[in-house]
Each structure stands twice: as structure tokens, then as C-alpha cells.
Amino acid sequence: MLPPWVVLGTAYYPEYLPRELGDRVETDLDLMVAAGIGAIRVGESVWSTWEPQDGVFELDWIRPVLDGAADRGIGVVLGTPTYAVPPWLQLKHPEIAAERRTGERVPWGVRQEVDYHQPAFLFHAERVIRRIVEHHRDHPAVIGYQVDNEPGLLLPHNESAFEAFVARLRETYGDVDTLNEAWGLTYWSHRLSDWSELWRPDGNSTPSYDLAWRRFQAERTTEFIGWQADLVGELRRPEQFVTTCLAYDRAAVADVPLSSRLDVAAGNLYVHVQDGLERPARPPRFEPGWIGRSVADLYLAADRVYGSRGEPFLITETNATSIGGSHLNHPPYDGQLRQLAWAMVSRGARMVQHWHWHSIHHGAETFWGGILGHGLEAGRVYDEIAAIGGEFAAAGASVAELRPDVDVAIVWSTESDWALHFQPPLAHPGGAPDKSSYRTIVTAFYAGVIDAGLRPGVVPVERLGVDPVALVSRYPVLVVPALYIASDAVLDLLVAYAQAGGHLVIGPRTGYADPEARARAEVAPGRLREAAGVHYLEYENLLDPQPVVGLDGHATRWAERLILDDADVLASFEHPGGGRRPVVTSKSFGAGRMTVVGTVPDGALARSVFSRALDSVWSQLPASVTALSAVNPAGERLWFVHNWSGSPVSVEPPAGVTGGRLELGPRDVRVLGEERA
Predict the structure, then answer these.
(1) What is the dihedral of CA 590, 593, 597, 602, to 10 degrees?
(2) What count of other Cβ atoms lies within 10 Å of the Cβ of residue 49?
(3) Among residues 357, 321, 291, 433, which one has the least CA distance to residue 74?
(4) Taking the alpha carbons of 633, 636, 639, 640 in that order, is the dihedral positive or negative?
(5) Distance of alpha carbon 431 from alpha carbon 448, whole angstroms
């Protein structure tokens, strides 16, 4: 499906260029070849170009691009344009508009305004998909398809969506009495006597309802993308792949089931560059959102894409230069694009596509910068992209299909993210709820793994499996922060993992609620208590960071009032109200161990926890350096060593790593081999 090397790519939109600029296709493709760009994504945003009027198709406008790409050995990922609906369809079928709230349609004029389960939309979507794929599938340039684009933006409240939601509830629960009990609807007089009494989601305050609504919406997104993937799968050539590009923060996306409907997982990964990519990490300048704010965020995002299917993946979009709106103009420093590209490869990326080839001269994304700026002249960014292309070509198959080594795996729970968005445990200064609580907690632990010089990974809770011995063999340390929504079976698996020899580390809120988002009627941490050797009856928000003793660093934002059963105290803090309280404990359990971190650790505390859990392969790494490894299909282990600072640094590799003492320049990266035993 892809060539046996890492492919450098970009998105190419010649149709966006002003007509007075003439035909630039040959010029652009020649520049791409010179830069080592081997794949382009086309056509996913212009339904009104493919089908300017109802039933009138213009399918050959893209032919010069396909022909030119084929002549130069550039592969083409052809997009289906279903996320950007043409005006004629909006006018002919206004009912396809999604409703953000009941009866309030999303206004036309942006993109992704549609409830994609509306029959009229599906009819026209299938028709245009069939025409595009049937017309171009045999073109030698086409190597695969991207269906839709960043799906799951909205939670449509349309009447048909709500009716389908109620039908799903009836199928799941059978009768309203069962639903009443499962959701605790006696509270505030919400008990139902008939399904017709279920209120709309707009004003909902019941956590169980919200979680069921989010699950339902994510299932609809999976069904829609799966429907497209199956349709294209019937039409394509056998060697062509089908994927979509996920924005992992979308409200209606569950990445594991969705990616299971595709041939390969793919994600869009953007990061605040400049000092956002400095190490040691500086305090973030931006609020949490869809753009990563640190080196840890970068690696965590890439590991999430790998985790979706547990195999190498595609990056369908990443930084070229400034990203976001007209007010966010932060181009990367020299070397940072190269660092980003190799960081993604180190986590298993098979393709890295920079968005996009040329800056757009009009529209909402005018100032989201491309490899070429508005002047369409190759410059600094192009030169660095070309350097990446040269390095990818030189590395060849040795860096393709990599499987990252993992010392410490972080368990990711999309459902816990949803639940803690609805009822956040953390607060912003001033007391407003922090709806990014889940990601804040998880990132604190993940960053600690990086800071300890260890190799992190992400395993979605859906992919833990059922065999604790196999889990121990894959992950010597398993970290479970904020696993708020957890079944008995998952919690029992975690206990069995520790008993079988793994080191289980749990963080705040883990195991506190059941799959209905109900607080468990048991002393926390419930089914984990025996293995943990501690319990707690109270918890609180910390208004100020509290220095700990026993380990480095501070407890921040949250503290569970841990009561010792038979665990050892690793760290404690002096509570402002008086008395010393344990905040990190550990207990030997069976053949393994369980550590409880009852707070959101700051960087120093998280690093201390993981440094105590495992020794780094690389001793005394400078604070600006990360060293992560992966194994290729030939069994060769490669080390990716990044210097994330603007100053040069010297690093002594461990025994067996080739090349001797390493001199890294400012914002440099090297790929090193390892001698085989």
C-alpha cells in the first residue's frame, strides 16, 4: 500500500490558487520532487468543484495533478469531499444541517455543518464518492483514499438523532425501570414512566445520560466513517488503502473502534513550536486545546495514533509553519520541523504530511502557513522540508514500520475523558471547572515518564486484552491515571497484572465510577484497595502546590486523603490545615507492585516516581535531551536522540549504541543504531 520507506508528504490544493497565477502544477510538482516529497493529499475539501450542480460532475479537473504526480513518482491520496457540503445541496435539503441544540441549526458558511446520518446527505455523499473513486481508481498515481476529514466535530441534536438515541437506550436497557435504576433518576424527580418522557440533551445534568449520549454520538461517527470506508473498499484497487484523518480531540470520536474500520490509523498532529518545544519544559503560554503545548504533548499525541490500532500509522497533517488563525503567527525555529518529523517517525509514523503545500490566498485559513508562503517562492521552510526529505530517503526502509519500545505504558480512556469533561475534578484559578481535567492529569504522568529518561507508550483501555501475564510481558510498568470510568473486569485485570509481576501505578480518580458514570458505593479505590494497601474517604482540590518530602517536587491541584492499610509511604506533604499526609504510596503485591499517586504531580514529583520505578537505559541524560527507541522489521533497534534546546549539548550513549560520544547541535536530532547481541 505504501512504499517500503517513510513517505514525506503534503496536502496540495492548486484549485485554491487565484486564476491570474496561471497553471502552477508542473512547477509545484517539480519543487516537491526536489524536496523529496513522495505523496500528496488532494480533493477532500471541494465537493462543489467535483459536483458544481446537482448531478453535474466535473471529475477531470484533478487529472493534470494525477498525471504529473505519476510522471514524477509521487503517490496521491485521494479524498472524499463529504465534510464540505456544496451550497446547492444546502439549499435543496436544509434538513441536513446539524443542530447544536435542539431546533438550532448550525449556520452554513463554515464546514462540517451536517448531521451525516440524514438520508438526503447520505444519498448525495454516496453518489459523489462513487463517481470520484470509479473515475480515478485505476490512475497509477492513486495509492489510497482519505474518507471525509476530521470527523466527529459536532454532537447533532436533530430530531432523528434523538429518536435513534432513545431507540438505542431501549435496546440497551429494555425498559424504563432498568434505566431509572442504572442512571439514578430518582434524583431531582427524573424518574421516567415512559420512554417518551426522556428529556433532550440540551439541559441535561445527569452524568449517566451525558456518557450515554457521548457514546452514542461516537458510535454514529464510527458508523459513518465505516460506511464510507466499506463503500470505497468495494470500489478501489486491492493495493490501495483507505483511512481518514482524525483530530483526536473531536467531541464525537472514539478512535479505537473508528480506526478498526480502516486499513491504517491516521491522525493530524499540531504543536505550538518555538519555546513550546523547549526542554526543560517552560510554563505553557496557551490554554489546553487541540494544539500540543510541549514535547510531552507531541509524543503523547503520536503514541495515541499508534495506540488506536497498535501498529504503525500515518500523520496526515502537521505543522509547516505558523498554524491556527490570523492572530497566531509563530513559525518554527530552525531545526524544529526536522525534530517534529523524526519524533513522529520514532513513534511509528509511516508517512508525515505537512499541511499544506502553499498558503491559501483567501478563506478562513488564509494565515495558516504552508510550505510555500503567499508569494509561492521556496524559502527557509521549504529548505528544511527538503532536508527532511533527503534524510528520509537516506534512511530508507530502516526507519519504516517501526514498533516503539515501551518501558512505561499509559492507559488512555476516552470515556473517562468524556466523563471528566462533564464533571471535572480540577478547577481553574478562581474556581471555574477545568474541562481539560482528564488530559491535564494524564499529561502530568506521561511527561514524568519522558523526564525520567524512560520510553513511554499509550495503550487504550479497549486494547488491554484479558491476559495479565501477556500485559506484564509487554509493559513492565502500567500507569492508570484518572481511569474514572472502569468496569469491574478492567479493574480486576489491573490487579491481576500487578499480581503477575507488573508494576501498576494509579493516579487520581482511578476506579471511582462504574461504566454508567455512577460513583461506586465502596471505599476508594474499591477493587484496587487490597493491591494498593491504602484507601481514602476524602479528597480535595489544592489551591497551592504543596512541597513533598521523600521524593522531589510538589503535589498540585488535587489530593486524596490516603489512609494506610499496609502500604509504604514514598512521599507526603504538610497539609495547610495541619498534619502530614501521605500522597505517594507503594506496596509489594504478589510478584509485582502497586504505587498510588494521590495527586496531580508536578514535573519533579512525576519524574521522581518513575525514576524510582525503573532505571533509564541512558544514564544522566541532559535535561534538554530525549532518547527513545524503536525496532524495525529487520529486528534492528534504532535510537532517536533529540536536543530540544537552542544550545549544543554533548551526550554519552550507553554501551552498545553505535557512534560514540554524541555532539548535538541546537535543536538537533540523530538516529543511532544499536549493536546486536
Answers:
(1) -170
(2) 17
(3) 357
(4) negative
(5) 26
- Tell me how far apart the alpha carbons of residues 485 and 489 are, in angstroms, rounded to a whole number: 12
- Which tens digits make up the pLDDT trace of 243-300? 999 999 999 999 999 999 999 999 999 999 999 999 999 888 888 888 999 999 999 9
Please, what are the domains in the chain?
A: 408-613 (3.40.50.880), 625-673 (no CATH)
> What cell was used for 62?
484533478
Beta bridge partners of 536: 524, 562
How far apart are the C-alpha atoms of 563 and 583, rounded to whole Å? 10
- Asked if 269 contacts 344 with a C-beta cutoff of 8 angstroms, the reply is yes
- State the Cα torsion 98-102-107-108 to the nearest 10°: 20
Phi, psi of 353 (to 5 degrees): -110, 120
Place of cell 490545615: 577
Assess contact for 347 and 267: CB atoms under 8 A: no
Rounded to whole angstroms, the Cα distance separating 313 from 319 reads: 17
Contact indicator for 596, 585 with CB cutoff of 8 Å: yes
Closest CA to 300 of 180, 158, 448: 448
What does DSSP assign to residue 35? H
Confidence of residue 236 (pLDDT cuts 50, 70, 90): very high
Mean pLDDT of all residues in 55-78: 98
Distance CA 89, CA 124 (A): 8
Residue 471: count of CB within 10 angstroms of its CB: 22
Residue 179 backbone phi and psi in degrees, to 5: -65, -45
Place of cell 509485582: 592
Q: How many CB atoms lie within 10 A of CB 569?
A: 17
d(CA 667, CA 440): 26
Helix (H) or strand (E) holding 144: strand 142-146
Element of type H or E holding 169: helix 159-173
Q: Name 41's bridge partners.
A: 11, 77
Q: Yes or no: say if 381 and 371 are a contact pair by the CB < 8 Å rule.
A: yes
Fill in the DSSP letter of residue 97: B
Angle at 464 between CA 415 and CA 248, to 5 degrees: 40
309-349 pLDDT, tens digit per residue, is: 999 999 999 999 999 999 999 999 999 999 999 999 999 99
Chain centroid, CA 359 distance in Å = 25
**Residue 53 DSSP code:** B
Beta strands in 166-318 (DSSP E): 241-243, 266-269, 313-318
CA angle 502, 505, 508 (to 5 degrees): 155
Distance of CA 317 to the CA centre of its chain: 12
- As a whole number of angstroms, the distance between CA 24 and CA 10 comes to 16
d(CA 318, CA 665): 24
Give alpha helix (H) positions in 236-372.
255-259, 295-309, 336-346
d(CA 308, CA 313): 9
**Residue 556 is inside which H or E element, if any?**
strand 554-564
> Which string of b and e fits 297-331 if b means at least 16 CB within 10 Å?
bbbbbbbbbbbbbbebbbbbbbbbbbbbeeeeebb
Q: What are the Cα distances from residue 308, in Å, to 301, 409, 463, 487?
A: 11, 14, 9, 20
Residue recorded with cell 438520508: 119
Residue 125, helix vs strand vs coil: helix
Residue length, the chain? Answer: 677
Supply 153's cell numbers.
466535530
Rounded-to-5 percentages of helix, strand, coil across the chain: 35, 25, 40
Q: Do the beta carbons of residue 447 and residue 606 sit within 8 Å?
A: yes
Distances (CA, A) of 634 to 141, 341, 398, 400, 457: 29, 22, 8, 10, 21
**pLDDT at site 232:** 98
Q: What phi and psi, each to the nearest 5 degrees, are found at residue 214?
A: -65, -40
